[in-house]
Amino acid sequence: MNRTEFVVTVAVVLLVAFTLGWVASWVVGRFRRVTADDMGEIDQMAQALHVAEEERDQAVAWAQAREREVSGKLVQTEAELAAAMEGLREARREASELRGYIESLNA
Length: 107
Description:
Blueprint: H1 3-32, H2 36-106
């Protein structure tokens, strides 16, 4: 193969590569084309996503507030239970002392 044949072969290969690249670019461009309808739909989806994120944030805030409220009620209820149990122990002790006193009077 002489120099002229080599140059022609390289030129043909480069022309084929350029043509394939251009065709591939055109095909990708056709698939990726965004129309005005698509932009409207994308805007609607973005707005819906924004609304959903706001609602999620509100729900998380509500859940956290509710959890704090319930935790406070639980602590209060546990304190009331402890006080009631202490009162019951005291009442049982007093009842036991009174029983002992009554039995000692009857005996």
